[in-house]
Amino acid sequence: MSETNNIGLGDGQTGDQPKGAVMRVASQYVKDLSFENPNAPISMQQAQEKPEIQLEVNLGARPMGDDFPMGKDFFEVEMSISARATNRDTKDLLYVVETNYAGLFLIQNVAEHQMGAALLVEGPRLLFPFARQVIAEAVRGGGFTPLMLEPLDFAGMYRAQLEQRASQLKAAGQNSDGSEPPAGQA
User: Fold this and answer.
1) Domain range holding 130?
2) In terms of Cα–Cα distance, which of 166, 142, 168, 175 is closest to 33?
3) Omega before 41 cis (within 30°)?
4) What pLDDT, on a 0 to 100 scale, did the predictor assign at position 71?
5) Helices marked H in 8-153 — which ranges?
6) What is the domain count for the chain?
7) Is residue 180 part of a domain?
8) What is the 8-class DSSP label of residue 155?
9) Are 154 and 131 in contact (CB under 8 A)?
10) What CATH number does residue 109 fall under?
11) Has residue 122 been placed in a domain?
């Protein structure tokens, strides 16, 4: 299935994109999947309808490069999702499920300053429902009630990443673009 979107910051606004900005999912795939039920069969007796879940999400993107057979306008977006479920009362580990889910995107006519948002907001937004389904099925296959993750705020995650980077650069005495500030303005 192929989906084409105008690129924005996840709020429905297209910003100042050149005409004809395209972001199309060329393919999507599971790169890695792991389900651990280390305390079975005891954990099956301790299973609850709503266990305590610790969730970790990491996002990454990379250009496929000029040598990629499909062309230079392709980028891989990868999301790593790890969920650790524990019994709310005993704090015993019930299960751990992890996946690296990725998509190959064709991106054309997108302004350079919008590529980060395209790759780390729109890409994950398009992939997330499928990654969520993979996790739910793995948990169900492990004998537990499927884990249905709530939608994630990828735009908020991206803004937080930009703010953290700006703070780190400021602490290092650099501008947000990595350059040195003019003398006397550090």
Assistant:
1) 4-171
2) 142
3) yes
4) 85
5) 42-46, 115-117, 123-141
6) 1
7) no
8) H
9) no
10) 3.10.420.10
11) yes
